[in-house]
Each structure stands twice: as structure tokens, then as C-alpha cells.
Amino acid sequence: MGRAHIARTIGDTLLKVENVSLGFGGVKALTDVSFDIAKGEIRAIIGPNGAGKSSMLNCINGFYQPSQGSISYKGVVRGAMRPYEAARGGIARTFQNIALFKGMSTLDNIMTGRLLKMKRGFFWQCLHWGPAQAEEIEHRETVERVIDFLEIQAIRKTPVGRLPYGLQKRVELGRALAAEPELLLLDEPMAGMNLEEKEDMCRFILDVNEQFGTTIALIEHDMGVVMDISDRVVVLEYGRKIADGTPDTVKADPKVIAAYLGTGHG
Fold first, then answer.
1. What DSSP line would sit under 16-37, residue for residue?
2. Which site in 40, 167, 223, 230 is 20 to 30 Å from 252, CA atoms measured?
3. Tens digit of pLDDT for each residue in 49-91?
4. CB-neighbour burial class of residue 134 (10 A; exposed 0-12, middle 13-18, buried 19+)
5. Strands 215-219, 232-237: parallel, antiparallel or unpaired by DSSP?
6. Same structural domain, 48 and 163
7. Chain segment 193-238, per-residue pLDDT in tens
């Protein structure tokens, strides 16, 4: 499963964060943070609780607007933008707390990941006829490929609220993959999972990266997972960057060791 055994192709910079700060009232969530994400890599963002990791992902996908600094995507400095604009540009996201439609089936939840790809208007969709019907068939084929890839054919018609936690996490990953993202943001995809579920999720993350060429930014507390599957790691503490480099370099950094030994990372 480790990255060292895989021939990797890391491309040019896909996303660049430069001197980003974010505050809420008098509280600083991020202070002068800079790093980049290269096309084709798995880039981990780690740090103790309250380090600003999710706030950083929220800035990248447009949920928050930095108070200072800039974010460049595909070489273009972004202005203020909304999450749907980020999604339209090829950035998809999963969340710490599962954000699925619990009464809907696995298939229908993953279909919602195709909404921004649908060109026919609401009128045609309501009629479910002609061009809209042809378009839905095309999008459904994409969703079925995602379902096959994630090995969840047996639960395609099951309401997700009835599924165990690990499978709900897999469905949420499927919804993000249905958008065919260039950059996939994963916010603690393995939180609350048992060992077997973590191993499955690791395998799918590696397969998404290797088979689809999807660039991945990953927040994860399990240091074994981070060090095993990441190409590079950026470490935050109290909203500031304290380390950035390969897994081996980062785990040997005295500042990183002090941050985790001093505050824990449960």
C-alpha cells in the first residue's frame, strides 16, 4: 500500500496557497500559510485538533474567503468564489461529518454528484423526456461505473441511512467521484472506522489517484495512514505552518514531534 513501491508521476503545481490568513472576529484560524499541491499527488494536511486543517480546505473549496493572501488554481489567482464555482472548476469535497441524504438510496446520493454536469434545465428534468432523459442515462452510466469501482453494487438501492458508518463514508466518496474532479479534498475520510474499513478506504484512495490520475488533498489523524499513502505532508499548528515535506522528513521534524507529543492528535 505504501507510496515507495509505486512509480509516481507528479506534475506541475495544480493549486498554490500563498500567505493565507483567516480570522473569525478576534480569533485567527489561519496565519500566513503557504504551500502547494502538485498535479497527480496525494498531499496530506495534518496537525493537532484546532490546527486549522478543515478551515484550510474550506478556503480551497470556496466555503470561506481568506482575509489575506491568495489561492491560485491551474495558474490563475482566484477571486472570491462559492463552493459550487469551485466544484464547477473541478474541485470536489467530502466532509468530517457525513453529509448524505439519509432517506435516499446509494445510487441517488451518488447521482447528486452529477448535478453540475447536467446541461438540461429544470423544465426538461421534470418532464423526464427527450434530451433530459438521454442526458440522465449518460450520467447514470458514469454513476454505475463509480459504484462498480467502489464495490458497492449490493447496496445501490439501499437508503444510506440504513448503512453502517464505513459504507456511508464510501458512498460519500462515490458522490465526490461522480463529479469527476481534478482535485479531491478529503476531510478525515477514515475517522471512526475500524481497521478493515480503513484498509479498504486506503485502497480506494490510492486507486482513485493511480487509475484516474486524481490529485488528492487529505486531512487524516491516523499517522500510519498519512505516512504510508502520502507523497508530501504539510503540518499546521494553531493555524500556522510548522513543517512541509516528504513523510520521512516531516515525521523526523522536532517541531512536529513536539506539536503531537504536547497536545495529542486524537
1. EEEEEEEEETTEEEEEEEEEEE
2. 40
3. 889 999 999 999 999 999 999 999 999 998 888 888 888 899 9
4. exposed
5. unpaired
6. no
7. 888 999 999 999 999 999 989 999 999 888 889 999 999 999 999 9
Closest by Cα among 142, 150, 143, 145 to 207 = 150
Q: Are residues 186 and 174 in the same domain?
A: no
Asked whether 237 and 51 are in contact (CB, 8 A), the reply is: yes
Same domain, 86 and 185: yes
C-beta separation of 116 from 179 below 8 A? yes
In the three-class reduction of DSSP (H, G, I as helix; E, B as strand; rest coil), residue 53 is classed as: helix
Which range of residues forms the domain containing residue 60? Answer: 1-90+181-266
- Domain count of the chain? 2
Residue 10 covered by a domain = yes
| CATH number, residue 225 | 3.40.50.300
Could you give the residue ranges of the DSSP H alpha helices within 93-246? 106-111, 122-127, 131-149, 165-178, 195-212, 223-229
What the block records as the C-alpha cell of 17 is 496557497
Q: Is residue 98 part of a domain?
A: no
- Asked if the structure places residue 102 within a domain, the reply is no
Instruction: Identify residue 204 by its one-letter amino acid code.
Output: F
Last-in-domain residue among 122, 147, 179: 179
In this structure, which long-range contacts are made by residues 138-144, counting pairs with CB atoms below 8 Å and at least 24 apart in sequence?
139/111, 139/114, 140/111, 142/114, 142/178, 142/180, 143/107, 143/110, 143/111, 143/113, 143/114, 143/174, 143/178
Instruction: Identify whether the C-beta of residue 244 lies closer than 8 Å to the C-beta of residue 61.
Output: no
